[in-house]
Amino acid sequence: MPHGQTFDALDRRILRILQTRADISHADLAQEVSASQASCWRRVKALEGAGVLKNHVRLVDPYSVGRGLDVVCQVRMKSHEPGARKSFEEFVQAHDQIMECLSMSGEWDYLLRIVVGDVREYESLLMGELLAHPSIATSASHFALKRVKYTTSIPV
Q1: Residue-by-residue pLDDT tens, the chain, 156 positions
Q2: What CATH topology corresponds to 62-143?
Q3: Beta-carbon contacts of residue 14 (< 8 Å; ≥ 6 apart)
Q4: Looking at the DSSP assignment, which residues form a beta bridge with residue 76?
């Protein structure tokens, strides 16, 4: 399935279910989408082969593991030179607390979603590592008061 290909109704039903219940058996998936097990299995394999379906994961409740503080951090670079961006992106990849990093258009260069245990842990990451990075000019932090909506499911 090339990039941008449209999916039929059965593919869409399969994708919607697998995004919320990756551990569903092939038999149960086939029953829920009203397809034979063989047909369903072939479609799942085709979606995997095309890169549409990625890793199977289990989501962890951040509060249960002491990571209940969500911070959105905007970052402005000193330079847009490719080496500076590469160095920063490698820094991001090396820090588990940084859950997401988006390269942005507009006033800020990057938007990070960071999950930590408390403000002290965030302050240590921000002041001791992030702002100490030679490519970073400045940042702005925004602390989430509560999570109103969170999903990993892409509308299909």
Answers
A1: 455 677 899 999 999 999 999 999 999 999 999 999 999 999 999 999 999 999 999 999 999 999 999 999 999 999 999 999 999 999 999 999 999 999 999 999 999 999 999 999 999 999 999 999 999 999 999 999 999 999 999 999
A2: Alpha-Beta Plaits (3.30.70)
A3: 29, 33, 40, 43, 44, 47
A4: 138
Cα distances (angstroms) measured from residue 60 to each of 28, 57, 65, 68, 132: 24, 9, 8, 11, 30
Residue type for position 41 = W
pTM of the model: 0.86
Rg (CA), the chain: 20
Order the strands of the 136-143 sheet from edge to edge: 98-103, 110-116, 69-77, 136-143
- Which tokens is 143 given? 């602390």
Class of domain 9-49: mainly alpha
